[in-house]
Amino acid sequence: MRSGRWITQNEPLTYLNEATAIWLRDLRGEFRTRYAVNSILMFAVTTLVAVSFSIGSFRIGEAEKPFLCSVLLWIILVFSALSGLSRSFVKEEEAGTMDVLKLSARPQAVFLGKLFFNLTLLGALQLIIVPLFILLMNYKIASPGLFAAMIISGGLGLGAGTTIVAAMIAQASARGALFAVLSFPLLLPLMITAIKGCERAADGMNTAGWPEVRIAVAYTVIMIIMSLFLFPLIWEE
Amino acid sequence: MYSLKLSNICKHYTGTLLFKDISFELRPGEVLAITGWNGSGKSTLLRIIAGLVRPSLGKVEMFMGDEPIPKESRRKFLGMVAPALALYDELTALENMDFFCKVRGIAYDRESCLNMMERVGLTENANKTCRNYSSGMKQRLKLVQALLHSPPLLLLDEPGCNLDSNGMKIVEDIILEHRQLGMTVIASNEKREVDYAERAINLSE
Known about the structure:
Helices cover 78% and strands 0% of the residues of chain A. Chain A is mainly α. Chain A starts with 14 loop residues before the first helix and ends with a helix. Chain B has a single domain (2-202), classed as 3-Layer(aba) Sandwich (Rossmann fold). Chain B is globular and about 45 Å long. The A-B interface holds A 1-13, 17-18, 20-22, 25, 28-29, 32-33, 95-97, 99-100, 102-106, 109, 232, 236-237 and B 47, 50, 52-54, 72, 75, 78-80, 82, 84-91, 95, 99-107, 109, 112-113, 115-116, 119-120, 129, 144-145, 147-150, 170, 173-174, 177-178, 181-182.
């Protein structure tokens, strides 16, 4: 065996190329196993149905509706994310592929690849849950542009926050509990901002400047930059 | 020309000493065997060389000529096979190779990968998901993965693990061929594997 020397042509190795390879691998694996998708979607749909049956639209007064619906929507989104997004790193640990990934890719590329994967899952979750929520709760949105921007920017922040926590807890024993416990304080400022932003979009008052969207984008950028510095320390022993 | 140097490597876990003062140099064309009882730290020493585990004391250095290779870049210059190193079960063998090529910046060439798999006897199973592989087939695929980027340093932790006599012959061919240009470290207690090495370090002594 020529020790692999048939393969000599190298491609430019950028962080983006590496991260994309990891992202596509994770998507392919998820498409075949559906561990994270099933766990997130089942949790989200069950919670949504429970919420719509127990405190459906007819029990909420019009004045409280924008705020209450925003709270309920983000509780569903955040806790659904917490139910499955840790899988991105935990599955590497459980399958014993963590070391081979450490030997193959740079830490920052691994983080970005896992972040892209989590964002893809969150995007799919939001695409299904948000329209269903609007429909089932008869949630009227006065400013759809702001609402969409808030959902997207909130989702980006949620993905960034949960990805770094998932990396931190992957090698711990009580992963499920730790993931929720560590994520919650980190996500709380984002959650409050997103709830306020969605409430503002729903009632259509004081929508100028989209301050909550800006805060969520700033949160995402800070979280990603901080994670890119911290992740190599977590990733190594 | 590459070289590997270990200086006074010591490892202990929560107060228990695993090994201490491990020092050696390795140059292209050399094969080193690491032997010792179960739990003596053979696999840990290999993981320290690979940069997967930090030593408690001492340092591992790899050089390209006289230039030291930074620790974070060392992974590009080594290939590793170990029982604890798993490949992606939900992907086929070819998809695994495609992934490792892309993530290492190697242009993926299906024909080349198939050639490599033919050499380890996996061509017919190249499109099967690894979940359906036997442990011996997985071990063969790990060998392909380790050699994909033509690393100058090959770390083999029990390379004959789960392999039949044909598989052992493949390992032998790989070691003999790699010896022509590269450095090889084998952690094993199997006489047949240890015999490939000119030098041996016994961690139990």
